Recover the amino acids of this structure.
């Protein structure tokens, strides 16, 4: 498992959104904001039942992960006070969870983090599992 310093791991645990980048078999990138949960080892995002224009199985991120499981994920924080800027960039591999204990645990983790998921029917909803292979943390620190 790839190690991440505790301040950066905590940042991933509490951050509310991230941007997931996938690419198709031709390398065409696709970036989308996601809600996610980090359990210290993997990152999870459920494909919930918010209105979508196409079925979940045909979502671009799902098709891309099936064709090319390499992903990038950026979790960032912006403030006008640039000394507070920071991000963690994650490089890894993604897979779709459609059943089983790990999916149930991922949904529980997401429900614990987001009150909106506590009220949402997630039965039968798959989740994206990201297995990090490398973390790149960054923060702006002004020079003394």
């Amino acid at each position: 498992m790839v190690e991440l310093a505790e301040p950066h791991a905590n940042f991933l645990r509490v951050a509310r959104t991230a941007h997931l980048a996938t690419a198709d078999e031709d390398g065409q990138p696709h970036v989308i904001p996601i809600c996610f949960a980090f359990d210290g080892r993997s990152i999870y995002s459920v494909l919930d039942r918010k209105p979508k224009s196409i079925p979940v199985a045909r979502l671009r991120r799902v098709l891309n992960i099936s064709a090319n499981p390499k992903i990038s994920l950026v979790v960032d924080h912006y403030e006008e006070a640039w000394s507070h800027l920071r991000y963690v960039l994650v490089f890894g591999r993604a897979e779709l969870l459609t059943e089983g204990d790990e999916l149930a645990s991922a949904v529980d983790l997401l429900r614990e983090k987001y009150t909106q998921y506590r009220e949402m029917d997630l039965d039968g909803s798959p989740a994206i599992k990201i297995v990090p292979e490398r973390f790149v943390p960054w923060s702006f620190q002004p020079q003394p």
About this structure: Residues 14 and 142 are 24 Å apart (CA to CA).
